[in-house]
């Protein structure tokens, strides 16, 4: 019986720790993302975590779009941005994976369904205060 109580207590602490880390991502983040022509693009992220669900938006010079399939667990987060041409002929998915550490998120951006073979891009987003 005592052993079950210890395991229950450890499980509760683990859940609370995961929730605390998820809450730390809430807010606005900014990053200078390397472009394919050597330029950098300012991207902003606005996140809201509810349990393991991550919602929010991505802002760029092309406007603001909602993220989808957002997940957060402890320090790790992931989400997707889908966009395409108005006629539906071109569709691309950008997959983001990140590791939260205080006021920074180290991210990797990879592309699915775009024209040609595009390598993943790594960058760091910083909390906007």
Explain how this protein is built.
With 129 residues, the chain is of the alpha+beta class. Helix content is 17%, strand content 57%. The longest helix has 22 residues, at 2-23. The chain is globular, with a radius of gyration of 17 Å. The N and C termini lie far apart (48 Å). Residues 1-21 have low confidence and may be disordered.
Features:
129 residues, alpha+beta, nine-stranded antiparallel beta sheet, 1 helix, 9 strands, 17% helix, 57% strand, globular, disordered N terminus
Summarize the structure.
By secondary structure, the protein is an alpha+beta fold.
Report strand %: over 45%
- One letter per element, helices H and strands E, the order comes to HEEEEEEEEE
The major pleated sheet works out as: 9 strands, antiparallel
Rg (C-alpha, Å): 17 Å
Work out the number of β strands. Answer: 9
Instruction: Provide the residue-averaged pLDDT.
Output: 82
The portion of residues assigned to helices is 10-25%
Distance between the termini: 48 Å
- Sheet with most strands: strand arrangement: 4-3-2-1-9-8-7-6-5
Structural class: alpha+beta
What's the tally of helices?
1
- Parts with pLDDT < 50 across at least 5 consecutive residues: 1-21
Global shape: globular
